[in-house]
Amino acid sequence: MTPHESPPEQRVSQPNPIVTLLQPLGEALRFMTIIPQPWLPPGDERTMLRALPWFPLVGLLIGLLLLPIGWAALQIWGTLTAAALLVVIWAVISGGLHLDGLSDTFDAVMSWRPRARKLEIMKDSRIGAMGTLAIVAVLLLKVTMLAETGALWWQGLLLAPLLGRWADLCAIAWFPAAAEGGFGHAFHDQLRRSDVVVTTVLSLVASLLIAGMVGLVAMLLVALTTLLLGRWWTQDLGGLTGDTYGALCELAEVVVLVTLAAAL
C-alpha cells in the first residue's frame, strides 16, 4: 500500500447515478405494483415521499403492460371476455392495493357511525357488506365500460391508470390527512405543490396525446370527482387516509372509462 492509498476499510463506494435517478420511480413501482425490483436498495419513508410525483407514470406503465395482453385477448375472444381478463390482470399487477382501500373506505363511510368508529372500521382488515359491494360494482363497471369503449379500448387502458394515480396526488395536496402518523399524513405534509403542478401539466399533455379532447374532458371529470368525494370524506372522517386515496384512484379509473365509452 502506498502512502497515498486509503485503507480498504476507509474507502466509501459512490452511489450509481443512474440508480439514484431511477430510485424514486422504482420505489413508486414497488409501492403500487407487484413488479419485482431486485436492483432497488431498501427504501425508507424519505425515498417513498420522493416517489410521489412518479405515481401517474406508474399508472401509464401499467397501461403499457396491459396493451399487448389486450391485443392478444382480442385475437382469441370477444370484447367482453377480453375486457374481463384485462381488468383482472390490472388488479393483480396493482396488488389489489387500491381495491383494498376502496372496500375499507366504503365499509367506514357507509356505516353512519361516529367519526372515531369509522376510522376504526377502516383499520379493520375484515371486509363488510358495503366494502364487498363497492369492489363488485367497480370491477363490473370497469369490465362493461372497457368493453363499451370499442376501438378506444387502448386509450382507456393507458389513460385510466394514469389519471387514477394523478387523482391521488390531487387529493393528497388538496385535503388534510385524517390522523397523525401513517403514510397519509406524511404524504400530505411532504408533497411539494411544485411537484403537483409539474405532474398535472405532464398528465394533461399525456391525456391530450392519448385521447385528444376526450382525454381533457376525462381529466376534468376526474378532478371534479376527486374534489367532491374528497370534501365529503374530509367532513366525514376529519381528513383523508391511505384507504381513501385507494378508493379515489379506483373511482377515478371508472370515471375515465365511462367518459371514453360515452364519447362513442
Question: Could you characterize what this model shows?
Answer:
The protein has helices at residues 17-32, 45-50, 55-76, 79-93, 97-109, 115-123, 129-148, 153-174, 182-190, 193-237, 242-263. The N and C termini lie far apart (75 Å). By secondary structure, the chain is mainly alpha-helical. The protein has one domain. The model is unreliable at 9-13 (pLDDT under 50). The chain is built from 11 helices and no strands.
Shape descriptor reads globular
Outline the low-pLDDT stretches.
9-13
What is the terminal-to-terminal distance?
75 Å
**Biggest beta sheet summary:** none
Helical content band: over 70%
Strand content: under 5%
Element pattern in H and E? HHHHHHHHHHH
Global mean pLDDT? 86
Number of domains: 1
